[in-house]
Amino acid sequence: MTKQTILVAGSGFAGVWAVLAAARAIALAGREDHVDVIMVAPQPKLAIRPRFYEAVLENMDPDVSELLEAVGARFIDGIVESIGAETHEATVLRNDGTREAMGWDRFVLATGSRVAMPPIPGLAEHAFTVDQLDQAHHLDAHIKALPDLPETPARHTVVVAGGGFTGLEAATELHERLRTMFASQEPRVVIVDPAAEIGAEFGAEAGRTVREALAEIGIEQRPGVLLDAVDAGGAQLSDGSRIEAATVVWAAGVRAHPLTAEVPGEHDAAGRVVGDLFLRAPAAPEIFVTGDTVKAATDDAGNFNLMTCQHALSLGRVAGYNAAADLVGLPLHPYSQPKYVTCLDLGAWGAMYTEGWDRQVKLTRAEGKKLKQEINGLWIYPPAADRDTAFAVANPDFVIVP
Q1: Would you say 267 and 273 are in contact if contact means Cβ atoms under 8 Å apart?
Q2: What is the structure's pLDDT at 382?
Q3: In the sheet where 227-231 sits, what is the strand order?
Q4: Which H helix or E strand runs over 285?
Q5: What is the structure's pLDDT at 376?
Q6: Which stretch of DSSP H or E encloses residue 190?
Q7: CA of 376: how far to CAs of 54, 238, 284, 331, 359, in Å?
Q8: Buried b (16+ CB within 10 A) or exposed e, 371-393
Q9: Out of 28-32, 84-88, 379-383, which region has the weakest mean confidence (pLDDT)?
Q10: What is the full DSSP assignment across 195-253?
Q11: Are the C-beta atoms of residues 354 and 362 closer than 8 Å to each other?
């Protein structure tokens, strides 16, 4: 009898949790000998992308090979070049350069997102990002080499384009690093953002806290300004000013992975597929979309998931479980994630912890920092040796009756 196949594209937060949840559903139905779960990714590693702004990058991509083996999933090194929404046959480009066609019965798209790089002159050539681990290492090497540059104001000046989570955390981290590196020179870190106020997206209370923290640290805020051009010597801004800087960091938004364009149906402005209650693509119900590739309602109050690991974890669990449940005859599990919290690292000032979609500030400074460090210290995946343990750790909010 030919086995059915669930193909999971991506090894990030959503992809790993999708595999675990799919394996659990298959085990619950006693169909381990009838359904294969296959993950396709360049490496069997889970990149902890939200922390790529940090100075220490070791262990930011833990190997998940043993975890996949523990739940009986297969791993194929490569990338999915095309999904085959109509044919149910994906094209996989292996790491060795060969291509192969892979048939699937259910497809889970968990390829995440990529930083959006608009056609700003010099941006691709001269700006740094912390979107992927190799890019974070590139920025880290550049920062470590700054003392070798001529002693000019540009050497200890950083321009960060983007006042969202990544931009704020990168700016405050870099300020701290440069302050340690150049003890006799106060670093200059400038955040530019088109919003009327830096941190405006966080709402009134949290935004005000962010701006007060930046001011206390000594980070310059340039709201209402765009990055017009970048060159080896600095950045040109839309208000006509120029900042001489050895370091320009681009952190101004992401877009869903290009593979989402192959999924028929409605997409949002970021390229995400608008999914249904069970994270299926409505126009192609055998494709499940998850993580940063999907836009889904988190509750009945009009809120939708953000492109964050906080949402990717639950999205991955639901999509993977439902992809398998759809094959083995179990009830599908609706996606619901009404609770929303944030914990924003603000460098030497501390951190800000908020609760709710209106971002009520609950902890700041040292208390917030302590919580942030505790969050960072949690296991990203379980050191489990069996299906049940792996699933239990990865699915704490699932209530499933065998």
Answers
A1: yes
A2: 40
A3: 227-231, 234-237, 242-244
A4: strand 284-289
A5: 86
A6: strand 188-193
A7: 11, 37, 37, 34, 20
A8: bbeeeeeeebbeebeebeebbee
A9: 379-383
A10: SSSTTGGG-HHHHHHHHHHHHHHT-EEEET--EEEEETTEEEETTS-EEE-SEEEE-S-
A11: yes
pLDDT band, residue 257 (cuts 50/70/90): very high
What gap in Å lies between CA 68 and CA 37, rounded to an integer?
9
Tally the C-alpha atoms within 13 A of residue 328's C-alpha that lie toward its C-beta: 26
Strand partners, 242: 236
Compute the half-sphere exposure of residue 21: CA atoms within 13 Å on the CB side of its CA.
32
Contact 246, 146 (CB under 8 A): yes
Q: What are phi and psi of 195, to 5 degrees?
A: -65, 160
Contacts of 327 (CB under 8 A, 6+ apart): 4, 6, 31, 35, 105, 106
Beta-carbon contacts of 263 under 8 Å, excluding residues fewer than 6 positions away, are 83, 85, 109, 273, 281, 283, 284, 287, 289
Q: Is 265 left (phi over 0), alpha (psi -120 to 50) or beta?
A: left
Whose tokens are 């955390």? That residue is 169
Residue 330: pLDDT over 60: yes
Q: How far, in Å, CA of 155 to CA of 217, rounded?
A: 19
- What's the pLDDT band for 377 if we cut at 50, 70, 90? confident
Q: In the block, which residue shows the tokens 């109509």?
A: 86
Locus of tokens 């999904």? 83
Q: Which residues contact 83 (CB under 8 A, 6 or more apart)?
A: 9, 90, 107, 109, 259, 262, 263, 287
Q: pTM (2 decimals)?
A: 0.94
Per-residue pLDDT averaged across 48-71, rounded?
96
Q: Which two tokens stand for residue 91?
A: 């094209």
Closest CA to 160 of 145, 150, 175: 175
